[in-house]
Amino acid sequence: xxxxxxxxxxxxxxxxxxxxxxxxxxxxxxxxxxxxxxxxxxxxxxxxxxxxxxxxxxxxxxxxxxxxxxxxxxxxxxxxxxxxxxxxxxxxxxxxxxxxxxxxxxxxxxxxxxxxxxxxxxxxxxxxxxxxxxxxxxxxxxxxxxxxxxxxxxxxxxxxxxxxxxxxxxxxxxxxxxxxxxxxxxxxxxxxxxxxxxxxxxxxxxxxxxxxxxxxxxxxxxxxxxxxxxxxxxxxxxxxxxxxxxxxxxxxxxxxxxxxxxxxxxxxxxxxxxxxxxxxxxxxxxxxxxxxxxxxxxxxxxxxxxxxxxxxxxxxxxxxxxxxxxxxxxxxxxxxxxxxxxxxxxxxxxxxxxxxxxxxxxxxxxxxxxxxxxxxxxxxxxxxxxxxxxxxxxxxxxxxxxxxxxxxxxxxxxxxxxxxxxxxxxxxxxxxxxxxxxxxxxxxxxxxxxxxxxxxxxxxxxxxxxxxxxxxxxxxxxxxxxxxxxxxxxxxxxxxxxxxxxxxxxxxxxxxxxxxxx
Length: 518
Ligand code: FAD
Ligand code: DLZ
Ligand code: SF4
Description:
This protein is mostly helical.
């Protein structure tokens, strides 16, 4: 008697939309079943921005159609299928019963929550390491082992050596690993600056937009106009457009912020990278080729490549190295609720208002807006980092926990006590004024240090440093700031601290917002 081997269920999640995914490479097209499921649980465990849900669902549908055209059997659950049980584990159980199997092969999810859920299933689940990254878990662990401090810059150099990107033999191209000194200038409005491409929704995307509008109407954020690419072809066009038009200015404008130009010379490629439509190496090779062809300056190409093979890989390494408890960290003991301004309530602070408004409209803000406006303010007021984490995970189109959590809790909120960064990213209004044009239209005055009209960042900055002097006073990189404070006149110091206290009180007196938004 011949015993039939049961088929494998090949799980593909909404951020695993790569044709060369390891689970697909190990599957047998002739007998295994690909399982993809649009489920309410994934759409609502945090209240994702409607554009993020639409991107993921539309891209899932198109990816499934591609697999089917390529001869795969795909068991696809749509959000409005009546039999849909609306969570990934329960859909796997349903498909296992339907196809008479108990075997599941999946690429390890990018979130501890889902890893645990898959491992808890009463099925035989094999999780393969996701190899769409440059460093494997073992490589990152080996690099991190025995180091007192994990610093991105040194890890990045390893990744340059490993990939050969911008290398001349074993030396960095241009004789330096890092050209940041030439980057990070303020920017001016410029009609000639290229706008990122927008993609008119096709039939599949339009159907998804209608579904998302009906099911997630109460989530923060505008669903339309929706201009994101939802397939690999579109993502490749976006990549080409960036390399040809925006990359040359990427380095110079990387840290600048302009009220009327929310995207400047950034790539807006993170959503495509993070859901698998683009691969990190192909992006970096395209940037390197443009530099080698003399179309892009070295500071731009190196700076851009560093973000991807340096920061992106480093953040992933930290997330998986630190384990599931990372997201609960709160090294500074911060407990304040996130102000209603994060959900669009009116504020006189022009920078915060602009960053939140563009987040609502585009599901996008660039790094410095996330770090030095919304992140900086949340840290200075002492917002509860788990609420800040939920906010960032919800509101950005590129937000997946493996990359969002170390950026938010580590880099931005110092909640991990200094694993990602050696000092907190805090600044007064002067930094924002230097790097943006927000202050010109603000209800507050960036030059005033205290009083009701003074820029809130100014007093909050000192208040934060003083509140945490025990922790940061001995940090050599922060010592100059404490020396500056110590030299100030006593009445000035008291006025500054009183201003900060007034501002914090006004937040505490305001109507509380529910933890996950209005
Ligand atoms: P560009 O400026 O064009 O940079 C190119 C690419 O580099 C990006 O597409 C991205 O893949 C990568 N990159 C740049 N900086 C980082 C970084 N710090 N960490 C990881 N990758 C980086 N990035 C996410 O992809 N998802 C998130 O959920 C996310 N949350 C963040 C939360 C906070 C508080 C902060 C400060 C940063 C966060 N970032 C996150 C990093 C960064 O802000 C975004 O990657 C970037 O803004 C995406 O826009 P872009 O594609 O135009 O980037
Ligand atoms: C983000 C997201 C959303 C909104 N919806 C789905 C879905 O319906 N089905 C699915 O497979 N994946 C979805 N995702 C992506 C997952 O949340 C993501 O795979 C995990 O957070 C792990 O990174
Ligand atoms: Fe922001 Fe302060 Fe400038 Fe206003 S004055 S835009 S609050 S930095």
